[in-house]
Design brief:
heterodimer, A: 185 residues, mainly alpha, 77% helix, B: 211 residues, 2 strands, disordered N terminus
Chain lengths: 185, 211
């Protein structure tokens, strides 16, 4: 049992919890991180992959990758930025795999997907929102930048870390995305 | 969740969000559809992480306690290696080349007469040898002793060339081993041993030090 004076409380920042989990192998702190970031990450991933089931799988994978690589986490990063970086990469990989599957199987997969009532219902539900229109209009990176900026209130430099770009490139990306959305919506 | 770092510009989405109706709408819509915390999903994630914990061992467990010891040992090894290299190099330094300039038109001097040198004179050393004791030790078991008169032998001290001559004993024989142990060490060997012995002692101490 960790001493109470050194153990981050529930009011501690995510970075303090991550440090405790990394340095002392504190399971309670990692559980706290999972608790805090479950909803924001699931929300983002659901928007990225358009399927709740796939998003949940990716969410589990995100926390698993984070746990495996916790020793690489540095406090100079915000923990949310680090997690969203992992989630974004996993979502991009999943999207690439999905495209390859569709490309390989061709029309068969598309026809099969069109006859799945659950997938259709989920997709219809997503299409009813403004964010789905945004997803249709924008490229994945621009979508992610806009999501992190408007929904997660991340500054440009943190978004840049998630996307692997510098802050100015992110500002330009956001500006162009807003311009395109203003034209189309 | 996040704190503004002051690096925002007019292109930053958050500042634009305060006055852009589209951004405001996007933000509100996203917050409205945000999924609630799911305990079932939380337990599923933790179950997978716990399963992983059995297999993943973070290198943090090893490094924080051990890296100063390992770094110190590596540094000591590097320094001792450098010192050994320096000593070996200084003892095997080549003889400097003779000056390249040639002095012309110098009359040859007549050869000097060979002066007698005190140091060159061979010094004789008288050694008394108990022949009986030597023979008893070499040829007979301990209970048999041979009595022979002690002989005094006068020896000339050997010149350096003769001292450096290879031994006539068989390599690997006990005599050769004893001879090699009794050989005087060169100054390089002495210096190397003087340097290495405290370092080796420190290294052994570090490696056996238990955290």
């Amino acid at each position: 049992m960790e001493p109470a004076s050194r153990h981050p409380s529930l009011k501690s920042t995510a970075e303090e919890c991550a440090d405790c989990a990394r340095v002392r192998g504190c399971a309670a702190c990692f559980e706290e991180l999972v608790r805090r970031f479950q909803s924001p990450l699931l929300h983002y991933l659901t928007r990225r992959v358009l399927s709740r089931h796939d998003a949940e799988d990716l969410l589990q994978e995100t926390f698993l990758v984070a746990y495996r690589n916790l020793h690489r986490y540095r406090s100079s990063w915000r923990f949310s930025t680090w997690l969203f970086t992992i989630a974004n990469r996993l979502a991009a990989s999943a999207r690439r795999r999905r495209r390859e599957r569709v490309g390989a199987a061709g029309r068969l997969v598309q026809e099969f997907a069109g006859t799945d009532p659950l997938a259709n219902a989920q997709e219809n539900e997503m299409r009813s929102t403004l964010w789905d229109a945004v997803r249709q209009i924008l490229e994945p990176d621009a979508f992610t930048a806009l999501w992190l900026s408007y929904v997660e209130s991340m500054p440009a430099d943190q978004i840049g870390r998630v996307l692997g770009r510098n802050a100015n490139a992110v500002r330009i990306l956001l500006h162009r995305a807003r311009t395109r959305l203003a034209e189309r919506l | 969740m996040n704190i503004d770092d002051g690096s925002s510009t007019e292109f930053d989405g958050r500042q634009a969000g305060a006055r852009d109706p589209l951004a405001d709408r996007l933000g509100r819509e996203a917050m409205a559809e945000r999924p609630a915390f799911s305990p079932e999903l939380h337990h599923r994630i933790l179950k997978r992480v716990r399963g992983e914990r059995l297999f993943v061992k973070s290198p943090q467990r090893f490094w924080p306690g051990r890296w100063p010891t390992i770094a110190a040992a590596a540094a000591i090894l590097a320094v001792s290696g450098l010192i050994a290299f320096w000593i070996a190099r200084s003892h095997s330094a080549p003889v400097p080349n003779p000056p390249a300039s040639v002095v012309e038109n110098v009359l040859p001097l007549p050869p000097k007469a060979q002066e007698p040198s005190i140091s060159a004179a061979p010094a004789s050393v008288a050694v008394s040898v108990n022949l009986g004791g030597v023979l008893s030790a070499r040829l007979f078991p301990p209970e048999i002793s041979v009595s022979l008169p002690t002989v005094s032998i006068s020896l000339l001290s050997q010149p350096p060339e003769a001292q450096a001559a290879p031994s006539t004993t068989l390599p690997g024989s006990p005599d050769r081993l004893l001879e090699s142990l009794l050989e005087p060490m060169s100054s390089a060997q002495v210096a190397l041993i003087d340097v290495m012995s405290p370092i080796i002692r420190v290294l052994i101490g570090l490696l056996t030090f238990d955290h």
